[in-house]
Amino acid sequence: MSEAAPYDIRRLGPDDVGPMRELLAVFAEVFDERATYCDAQPSDAYLRDLLADEHFAAIVALSEGVVVGGLAAYELRKFEQARSELYIYDLGVIEPCRRRGIATALIEEARDIARAMGCWVAFVQAEAGDAPATALYARHGEREDVISFDIPLD
Predict the structure, then answer these.
(1) How far apart are CA 139 and CA 60, in angstroms?
(2) Which residue in 11, 26, 31, 75 has a CA-CA distance of 20 to 30 Å to 81?
(3) pLDDT for 80-119, tens place per residue?
(4) Model pTM?
(5) What are the φ and ψ backbone dihedral angles of 39, each rounded to 5 degrees?
(6) 7-138 domain in CATH 3.20.20.210?
(7) Which DSSP state fits 27?
(8) Residue ranges per domain, the chain?
């Protein structure tokens, strides 16, 4: 990527299986989790169905037509009140393209999508010790310290 390469931010739709697979490769690189994001990818039909789901959003940053970052988010319908929240599940930008405002632009696009969905808030989690992510998210919202647990289903 050239130093001043422009980028475009856009939400993927059901015809964007290729860019979705590119986004999975970006997440594999950014999070150093190839097995999670690349080794057992779903079928094209599954991805088309997911990208058509109005309660899911995959947003990409493209530079010269190549996915260099992105965000995946889910609308969570609440039960205690008639409202929903947007959960930003993953957000990543490849190292050569960082510190150019791409992550902020992805978050802003997610905010617009959340508003259109009727969400009252968007939220994201960061791992303890991930200073760059924590600093990014602190610029956009209020910090809440929580502890999460994975509960195996076997």
Answers:
(1) 21
(2) 11
(3) 999 999 999 999 999 999 999 999 999 999 999 999 999 9
(4) 0.86
(5) -75, -20
(6) no
(7) H
(8) 7-138
